Each structure stands twice: as structure tokens, then as C-alpha cells.
Amino acid sequence: MTIHLLEPPVLEPPVLAPMTWTDVGAVTDIPLRGARRVPTPSGDVAVFRTGDGGVFALIDRCPHKGGPLSQGIVHGRAVTCPLHAWNIDLATGQPMGADQGKGCAPVAPLRVEEGRILLGRPR
């Protein structure tokens, strides 16, 4: 019996578009379990801070009826839309529970450096 070992495929890293990063404030400017609305040229972005200090950014529009997610209640790693109580996962923008698969609030590029929040946009 001959055994042939297959080489694993070589995966190229994804090519990411160059980004321009804009400082929008200190992490501590957003209270724990709070949010801040940041106007951008392509629309408002909601920046959230979870109870454990995680920072996330979504386009500030609920996929259901366009409600302002920045005015919602942050709990765990989700936000509840203030209009119709949809729960949106902060990491993915996906609705949770019974509303799963019914649209998405796009995730905005975000990074934290030296306690500052930077929002990205493609160059």
C-alpha cells in the first residue's frame, strides 16, 4: 500500500485596500456600555464601548427600519435598537435571535492605538 501525503495549499493573505485612519477621540470619551455618533463623509458611524472595555463601530442604522443604533442600549457585545428592540451583534452587525438573517448593520473599520479610537475609510 502506498500512502500519498498531500501538501497543504499555500494561502495568500487577503489584499486589503489601503486605509486612511481618522482619530475620533479617546476610548475613555465613551462610557462603559455607551455609544458615540461620529459623522463621516459617507454617513454616521456609531462607536460603542462594552462593559468589558471592548470598542466596536457600526454604520449608525439598524437594518430593520434605519433606527439610530448609537441611541440604543449596549449589553454584553450587542446593542438594542431604540425603535423596535432588534438586538444587533457589535462584532458582526448581524441581528440576533428571531431577527437573525434579516439584514445587517455594516461594520466600520476601527482600531485602537494608545487609547485613541481610529476610524478607517478606504483611500
From TrEMBL:
Keywords: 2Fe-2S, Iron, Iron-sulfur, Metal-binding, Nitrate assimilation, Oxidoreductase. Its EC number is 1.7.1.15. Gene3D superfamilies: Rieske [2Fe-2S] iron-sulphur domain. Residues 22-119 form the Rieske domain. GO terms for molecular function: nitrite reductase (NADH) activity. InterPro entries: Rieske-like_NirD, Rieske_2Fe-2S, Rieske_2Fe-2S_sf. It is an enzyme of class 1 (oxidoreductase). The keyword Ribonucleoprotein does not apply. PANTHER family: 3-PHENYLPROPIONATE_CINNAMIC ACID DIOXYGENASE FERREDOXIN SUBUNIT, FERREDOXIN-RELATED. This is Nitrite reductase (NADH) small subunit. It comes from Caulobacter ginsengisoli.
